[in-house]
Design goal:
Length: 318
């Protein structure tokens, strides 16, 4: 969660690039650090990659009342921007966390950008509405189509969302609990019933309190170690250190998601520094997809002085 609300975008200079280069992030547990890419401060909350469009998507706080949504090329050339993606809502949603890209809610449906939503007004005490939602935006126009509220007895704010590789589930967390919602439940009909007051928030599958921290800032999926499994990477803010941990996920009875092991594996550890002061979203790309960034695992970081955002890039290695 960004603790400083950003209302302007500052141009990058060679000085900021040099500062980032002075403090490279060490990689452990089989990951090799391949470099830092300095980006716009507008990209301060989340990152996702759409293989179908060959595009990165970013979001970030753009004012005290809204968030922005952006699409770029693999080399981060800006293709589209919507600086205020959230329309006024009865709940007061104004903040989008680490986003994800997935298939539509029905067979043959187009891709969609999914935004985890919450109300975050620091001057009013923080989470003012006590509920979370999944917003659905058009990947081409970046316009918010609709949003679906989540059951507030399970989750009070949505800080990240990640679609499973098979497209059937949208993962997030509440406190130390991992949650997974059926992608098909996030649809225009459910949204319409909720707006009419005839439906409540949707319920997810609770995989239990398996997280080592409630401060999860981002997520990404990759292929798992065996057929039928996937690896879920999570970005954790542990205060003076930040970690990427992973869980191997599988499929249980009735197609519901399961954890092969409830114990996370630590993948990368980064100490807090001036340049790497606050972790945000994660994205995974196929080898060779983003040569301008390098690596296959991309981790957003904010500096102590929020004049830019950066992406730490990693590739599997000894």
């Amino acid at each position: 969660m960004v603790t400083r609300w950003i209302s302007c975008r500052v141009g990058l200079t060679a000085i900021t690039v040099a500062v980032a280069a002075w403090l490279p992030a060490p990689a452990f547990a089989g990951w090799r650090f391949t470099g830092t890419r300095v980006t716009s401060i507008a990209y301060n909350q989340g990152i996702a990659f759409d293989q179908a469009q060959d595009s990165f998507f970013f979001d970030g706080v753009s004012s005290t009342t809204n968030s922005g949504l952006y699409r770029t090329s693999p080399g981060l050339s800006l293709q589209a921007a919507r600086f205020a993606v959230l329309p006024p809502t009865p709940e007061g949603y104004n903040h989008a966390g680490d986003l994800t890209v997935g298939p539509g809610a029905g067979p043959g449906s187009a891709d969609r950008v999914l935004l985890p939503l919450e109300c975050y007004y620091p001057s009013a005490g923080g989470n003012t509405c006590g509920t979370g939602a999944i917003g659905v935006a058009d990947p081409r126009t970046l316009r918010l189509r609709y949003y679906v509220d989540l059951d507030r007895s399970q989750i009070q704010k949505a800080m990240w969302a990640e679609v499973s590789p098979d497209g059937n589930w949208i993962w997030t967390s509440s406190g130390a609990d991992l949650l997974a919602y059926r992608s098909s439940d996030v649809n225009p009909a459910t949204a319409a019933r909720q707006r009419a007051g005839t439906a409540g928030g949707i319920m997810g599958v609770d995989l239990g309190p398996v997280l080592p921290s409630s401060e999860v800032t981002g997520a990404a999926f990759s292929a798992g170690p065996s057929p039928g499994t996937a690896r879920l990477f999570l970005s954790l803010n542990l205060g003076t250190t930040f970690e990427v941990v992973s869980y191997v996920t599988g499929t249980g009875a009735g197609g519901t998601p399961t954890l092969v092991s409830p114990t996370p594996q630590t993948e990368i550890t980064v100490p807090q520094s001036f340049s790497n002061h606050e972790p945000e979203g994660l994205a995974v790309t196929a080898p060779g997809v983003s040569p301008a960034l390098g690596g296959v695992l991309h981790w957003q970081m904010l500096p102590a002085l929020p004049l830019w955002s950066s992406i730490l890039n990693y590739t599997p290695g000894p």
